[in-house]
Structures are given as structure tokens and as C-alpha cells.
Amino acid sequence: MVAQLTNKHFGTTPSGQSVTEYTLTNNNGLVVSVINYGCAITSLNVPDRDGVLGNIVLGFDQLEGYVSTNQHIGCIAGRYANRIAFGKFMLDENEYFLAANNGPHHLHGGINGFNRVVWRGEEIRDENGVGVVFTHLSPDGDEGYPGNLHVEVKYILSNDDTLSFEYRAVTDQPTIINLTQHSYFNLNGGVKDILDHHLTVYADYFLPVDELMIPTGEIRNVDNTPFDFRQPKKVGKDINQHDAQLTIGHGYDHAWVIRKEMDDLSHAATLYDDESGRVMDVYTTEPGMQVYTANFLEGTSLLENNIALRPRLGVCLETQHFPDSPNHPTFPSTVLKPGENYYSKTLLSFRSR
Question: For residue range 114-148, what is the model confidence (pLDDT) as tens digits?
């Protein structure tokens, strides 16, 4: 078949902005749909070992689900993905105060982060696949961040069965930035939870957190801990162990330090469901990846096919810089200055076995 790209009206925000859903189909029949509200992926259909397509992400079939949720379903998180302690940081001897939306802390860009923005979308077509480029200007002072930040997020579905996310940004003042894609994956299509999924994380270290989920600054070896996923292991194998870190997070909600390879893209993770045979490999330029096992995913909201939100229904593999990096000088820097170009890329590769 020939790759296709279509779009349709998906709804109207409470403020009256029209939202568009773009549907990308590659030559092999893989299909991803994404809306320009938060750049949220609404569905991602890939084949199982028998060639039967199934949706492997959690998503709503109406805009209201995305507007009302605070679970960041399928969206882009920013300006700063993950947590910043007490919503403040120092930059060039100036102290900045951000919106607090996770207890006393700042999480995923604040109260009205990039997940609540209607982005401008532009369709892309070439011989390798189809995609959409989303752009947005985050003004100086947005959620407390300094600088006018011009952001571009590009989604490309290629004919080699990969879905890539490319992020670019420039600023007119020194600022911080850390973007990620926040889809919840369930390779069995949401028929059951993800505890039987096999996960490999190509990392020898993870970041312990304190009681408020802020990194302590320690970079701990995964040896002899429930955080050792260097070999394929079921997500649920150790999740209920009596471990202080698992108790704090109510499961996995931690950053791993990805082994850096010679190429720009490092292999961060492999997720496999033995019932469907679906496999997803994650590659990234980022130094870390947050693994979140949907520990707090609950409520009355319904997803597609009338599936109710509940804990462990999906797993997030959020490629990013480390949480709270602006307050940890030993962590890789997330500072962006005028004249510099922020760039990040993550690639999802799909297959079956």
C-alpha cells in the first residue's frame, strides 16, 4: 500500500480553539493518530505476530478526555518534563519560581504546560514516510520560565516501521528545557495490565529519590536491586518487593541512566509482550529514561473501547534529561542559551516475534 496522511476535526477546546487529528499510515499499514492539542498520540496501531493490527497506546476518543485529565496521556511534556524541586532553580545568579502542580513541586511544565497547548501543525510527506511538524511559541514568563522559547516537535512514521520524535528549540534568554513524549504503552492493546510485559532497560544505574520523588543526587548501581532490567524481565516480577524506592514511588517511577553508545542514538529499552508477539525498541539521544508503571492512573475517565483508567494499565518510557537537573550541578545540563540550538531525538522501532 501507499503511505497516507489525512486529517479531521477532533473537537473544540473550552476557549474555542479548533483541534485537528492527523492520521499517518505507512506502506506496511502501521497507523498513528495524533492531535495538535498537546501533540498527544491518540492511537498507535501495529501488527501482532499474526499481522493483526492493535492499538498499543492509551488514548481518548474525544477531546474532553485530554482536556480534563492530569495524567499526561500521550502528550508532549514541557517546558521541563519531570519534577523540579519546590518549583525553583537558579540560573546566572537569578532565582526563578515555577508553577507548583505536584504538591510543592513543579511537574511536566506546570499547570498549563505544553500538554495543554494547541500547537500549529504542518503535514510532511516524502518517499520514506509521512509526518507532522508541530510548532509553538512559549512566551517569556510562561509558567515562570524565562525567555521566549520557539519549539518544534516533529513526528515521522517511516516505512521501516519506526516512529520518531525530533525536538528543536531556540530561546532569546537563558532558560532550561527538557522535553519528552508521555505515551502509556500496552502492547496487548489494553486487554490486561502490563505486569507480564518483558522489559529490558540498557542501563547500569538509576536515580534514587527522596520521599517527595526528588532525586537525592546519588547515581546508584542496579546490581542486586529491583531496578535491574539489564536482562529481559517481567515488569511485575519485582514491583511488589519490600524496597524503599518502590514504596516511595508506589512502583516504578524512576530515571535510569542510559548507556551511551558511539552513535548519536543509544538503545534505551526493549518492551515485549509474549501473547501478541509485539516488540518495541526505544532509541534516544537523551541521557536518561523515566520508567513509570502508571501507579496513579485511576479515576472515572474512559479510554477508547470503554477501557477505564486504572493503575498498571500502561507503562511510560520517557526519554529525557534527569529530573531536577537545574538543582543538581553534577547532572547533565538542561540550560539553553541564546544562539544555541536544543535538539533531541527518540525513535520507536516496531516488530513482532
Answer: 999 999 999 999 889 999 999 999 999 999 999 99
- 93 catalytic? Reply is no
Cβ proximity of 144 and 96 under 8 Å: yes
What is the domain count for the chain? 1
Residue whose cell numbers read 524496597? 243
Active-site annotation holds for 182: yes
- CATH number of the domain at 244, please: 2.70.98.10
The alpha carbon of 3 is separated from its chain's Cα centroid by a whole number of angstroms, namely: 25
Catalytic position from the list 143, 152, 286, 318: 318
User: What is each CA distance from 268 to 75, 215, 274, in whole angstroms?
Assistant: 20, 20, 20
Catalytic residue among 105, 108, 182, 267: 182
Q: Is 338 exposed, middle or buried (0-12, 13-18, 19+ CB in 10 A)?
A: exposed
* Residue 76 β-bridge partners: 181
Q: pLDDT of 68-99, one tens digit each?
A: 999 999 999 999 999 999 999 999 999 999 99
The whole domain housing 177 covers 4-352
Spatial contact of 180 and 165, defined as CB atoms under 8 Å apart = no
For residue 343, give the amino acid letter.
Y
